[in-house]
């Protein structure tokens, strides 16, 4: 959250210690050296306002259990012919149940389905919905899940079901994130092809090629065997 505020919103450079710990400092580039103290205070004031907004959103979000956000997903459209994000979550739950059986992970079923149910819940949080910190989707879901007392594997799966987000990105490390991520991508692929949203040589608005590659990469990395 702090780094996003600096790098994305203000184009500042955050400063880390030798151990990689974020320090209460930042670097900003400017033209000239005149009025340096005023420039410094001005930039600090702007960043402080950004961080105050983030703090407000965060603590407001903590007042609402992540579970309560699921119903609110009915207000977020996924695709005009495929319904809302809530509809997508319900489809993903069915896909996940199928995968749990085929992959012989019945003993993890409860946590896996819990992960799928909550995977998109942070999309309607203040932090993400206010468009200030959309890059933190999944990360905030993990944080809110942990604060709400969810299992560590469930919280991690909420974050990691988005992996991989781009070529060379990390892949989900736990079975919760693996099955949630595959279910999400299968729903997107099958749904989009089903309603005629098919990528062409020049257009792929739903990034379906990347979605398909994501499924393949996850299966290969996790060495999944379907029964």
Automatic annotation (TrEMBL):
Q: What class of enzyme is it?
A: ligase
GO annotations under biological process? glycyl-tRNA aminoacylation
Any keyword RNA-binding? no
Q: Which family does it belong to?
A: Belongs to the class-II aminoacyl-tRNA synthetase family.
- Might you report a single GO cellular component term? cytosol
What keywords are assigned to this protein? Aminoacyl-tRNA synthetase, ATP-binding, Ligase, Nucleotide-binding, Protein biosynthesis
A Gene Ontology molecular function term for this protein is:
ATP binding
What is the phylogenetic placement of the source species in the record? Bacteria, Fusobacteriati, Fusobacteriota, Fusobacteriia, Fusobacteriales
Q: Which reaction does it catalyse?
A: tRNA(Gly) + glycine + ATP = glycyl-tRNA(Gly) + AMP + diphosphate
Protein name, entry field: glycine--tRNA ligase
EC nos: 6.1.1.14
SUPFAM superfamilies attached to this UniProt entry? HD-domain/PDEase-like (SSF109604)
Reading the lineage from the top rank, the first entry is: Bacteria
Read off the InterPro entries from this record.
Answer: Gly-tRNA-synth_bsu (IPR015944), Gly-tRNA-synth_heterodimer (IPR006194)
């Amino acid at each position: 959250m702090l780094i996003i505020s600096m790098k994305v919103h203000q184009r500042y450079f955050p400063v880390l210690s030798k151990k990689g710990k974020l320090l209460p400092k930042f670097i900003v580039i400017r033209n000239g050296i005149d009025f340096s103290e005023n420039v410094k205070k001005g930039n600090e004031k702007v960043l402080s306002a950004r961080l105050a907004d983030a703090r407000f959103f965060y603590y407001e979000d903590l007042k609402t259990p992540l579970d309560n956000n699921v119903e609110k997903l009915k207000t977020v459209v996924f695709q005009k012919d495929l319904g809302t994000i809530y509809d997508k979550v319900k489809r993903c739950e069915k896909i996940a149940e199928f995968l749990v059986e085929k992959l012989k992970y019945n003993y993890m079923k409860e946590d896996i389905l819990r992960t799928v149910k909550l995977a998109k819940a942070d999309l309607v949080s203040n932090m993400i919905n206010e468009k200030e910190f959309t890059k933190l989707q999944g990360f905030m879901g993990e944080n809110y899940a942990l604060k709400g007392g969810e299992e560590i594997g469930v919280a991690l799966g909420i974050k990691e079901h988005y992996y991989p987000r781009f070529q060379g990105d990390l892949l989900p490390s736990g079975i919760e994130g693996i099955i949630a991520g595959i279910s999400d991508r299968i729903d997107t692929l099958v749904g989009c092809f089903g309603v005629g949203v098919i990528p062409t040589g020049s257009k792929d608005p739903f990034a379906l090629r990347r979605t398909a590659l994501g499924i393949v990469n996850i299966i290969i990395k996790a060495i999944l065997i379907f029964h």
